[in-house]
Design goal:
Elements (H helix, E strand, L loop, with lengths): L1 H29 L1 H6 L7 H11 L8 H8 L3 E3 L8 E4 L5 H20 L6 H9 L2 H22 L9
Antiparallel strand pairs: 1-2
Helix pairs in contact: 1-3, 3-5, 4-7, 5-7, 6-7
Length: 162
Amino acid sequence: DVLANLCNQMVALHLRILWYDKRILLEGRRDPKVMLLRTITGVGPVTASAIVATAGDGHQFRNGREFAAWLGLTPINRSSGGKERLGKITKQGDRYIRKLLVVGMTSRAVMAKRSPEKVDLWTAKIIAGKPFRLATVAMANKAARAVWAMLTKKQEYRQPAF
């Protein structure tokens, strides 16, 4: 009886999660900002909805770097005497959105490793030249900057030219 009760609770929870996923997808289709952000590879309806819900139109940030720093995606600067030393990311911002962006860019990096002919040059170069997790965080940082630019300028995502 106990196991049957637990199984029924798991099934009910699973159905509720599916309902919420569909609801987020439907609400995201109504919001032009969410649809705009979903044009970035690796940003899905949950990530886009979370960004729009917390950051709004992005005008409270002066630039994309400030937005990325607010998310905790910029490296700690320990420079002195003209020698630049950048440490690990600060992790002092919004944990939820940072995690969503890093997970989205991880899936983008995995896709790039599986089919390198479909990926832009910058992504291929950073994945080849850096450790995998460092590359995904750098991609998340760049995606955060693109998100800020898209929200403030209301323009679609353009793949990097280089």
